[in-house]
Amino acid sequence: MGSVVLLDLMGGVALLLWGLHMVHSGILRAFGPDLRQLLARALSNRFTAFAAGIGLTALLQSSTATALITSSFTAEGLVGLVPALAIMLGANVGTTLIVQILSFNIAAVAPVLFIIGLVAFRSGARSRIKDVGRVSIGLGLMLLALHILLDTLAPAENAPGMRVFMNAITGDPVLCILIGAIVTWAVHSSVASVLLIMSLAYAQFISPAASLALVLGANLGSAINPVFEGAHRDNPASYRLPVGNLINRLVGVLLVAPFLRPITEILQAWQPDLARLTAGFHIAFNVATAVIFIGLLDGMARLLNKLLPDRVRQTDPSGPRYLDESALETPSLALADAARETLHMGDLVEVMLRKVMAAMMTNDRALVDEVSRMDNSVDNLDEAIKLYVTKLTRGSLDEREGQRAMEIISFAINLEHMGDIIDKNLSELATKKIKRRFQFSPEGAEELSAFHKRTTDSLRIAFGVFMSGDVNEARKLLAEKSNLRNVELAATERHLDRLREGRPESIETTSLHLDVLRDLRRIHSHICSVAYPVLDAAGELPIQQRAESDLASLPSPAAHPSLPR
């Protein structure tokens, strides 16, 4: 009998956690970008930040999620520490709202939520409607889980062994606080922990004083998760917000814990329902903590800034700058981060392209070595972007998000191929020219410089097409591809004319000249790959060019000189 009750209890807790996860993920998927924008606009002062923290956490049902979002802002220097701490005070209050609602007996609403959620999820034409359906189903699962917990605990209420066991482990308030903190840390949700405590208190498995001590522990435990998950070990400053929030909770617990017994007596006289009493204490504790600390945030911020100084930043071009792991739960935000990182990779490729041509024209061997080092950075960024987007695609993406993910990977692959052509081909040509002390003819050098300029100009246009999806710019890019083929043919013809004239510079650099033109044209082909998805989505991509777009992300033979040509 005892094992069955324990199994049912564990199943109810698991169902409660899964319902919370569905609500959290559904809200983030449906309104993630809007929530971040709301949070960013609400940071003008600590009071609006406090209100934003309440609203955001009431929607997400997770102060940990709010802490991770806010931590990402503070880590990037977009949010001051004082408003960020105010957001967390509001987040602590926001987690109490759903607990307060669920303290009423509204289990009968669960089937209605299931029906609404199923209809929205199965028939929703837009992704946001489907995600709202997910939220509705998650709320229904939470109500069903609470019903299961109460039904499971009811038969065991009169079991003397169970009551003796619960009294033994909850007899000491300090032990209760530790148990509540550990359980909340393990399940990553103070909402789930407090709802479980309410169920135990309602079934009279624990005393009123023990339930309040467990609530204190749950509040303390929920502040531990962001310390481990929202901070970066290599940056002490990233610990400021989660540590500040943990200090607020810890001081609040230390102030209230000695007075638990008189507080319990006062609350019992006001509210005989132990479940409602537990929920009321939960919200009162967090509101009181917010009132005490909201005026002390300036001093706390100064202390945290002193104890956890900013990391001395060392520029590492090979390391990703924008791939935020905490954004993976919100596909639109993660895709934006991946696109920014791809632009960072593109900037490196553009610098490589400019430097390799400068090395070619000025016989600067140091620039050739620098280009080789930069190619290693491009390769590292390519791997990081592909790994990040792959993690993202393990979740459920809608059609538009899936298409954007593939566009990002495709453009990153093409940028990596461009880097290889620059490093393996153009750099080798520059080295050969430097070693043999060749010089281009003035006309040849001017042709190559003009061809190179048109290539770099197209690369800048490609960056804009990649970010905006502008159809007109995509058309311009493909038109330039056709024009550049004609320019290459004309430049080759003029070079042959100079050979027929017997120009010494043209004779000794003939293979170099033609190879540079060829490699720049191949780089331009990779640049134009970004236009194909845009025109295809607009229905303007001819069949022949659609076939070319399918080949655009394949490795170029020029990128691998060891392959037979």
Automatic annotation (TrEMBL):
Organism classification: Bacteria, Pseudomonadati, Pseudomonadota, Alphaproteobacteria, Hyphomicrobiales
Keyword Membrane: yes
Organism expressing this protein natively: Bradyrhizobium sediminis
Protein name: Na/Pi cotransporter family protein
UniProt keyword Membrane present: yes
Topology term for the membrane: Multi-pass membrane protein
Membrane-spanning parts: 12-31, 43-61, 101-121, 133-153, 174-199, 283-304
Localization per Swiss-Prot or TrEMBL: Cell membrane
Domain of life: Bacteria
